[in-house]
Amino acid sequence: SYADAHWVLSQLYHQAPGFPLSIGNKKSSLQHAEKAMELDPANLDYQLQLAVALECNGRKKEAIPVLENLLKNPALKQEPELQTEAEKLLSDFSK
Known about the structure:
Layout: H1 3-15, H2 26-39, H3 44-56, H4 60-72, H5 80-93
Helix pairs in contact: 1-2, 1-3, 2-3, 3-4, 3-5, 4-5
């Protein structure tokens, strides 16, 4: 599957400046995050990126449960940096 490619593209479209400076595109970021999750829904990085892309597209209410489910995942204990980032985002999004 090309889940990793979709994840990288989602990050690229999210982080890059938009037109006319670069290729940044919030909608494309979300589309690729959703595709990565479709291909590998258990991947913790993909879950976090989906939450970020949802929030960037004005869909914070949808991002919060994604983060809550991610933080409930026992596998996250093996990824302390990812856990810290997810906790921070959930706190920020819940304000």
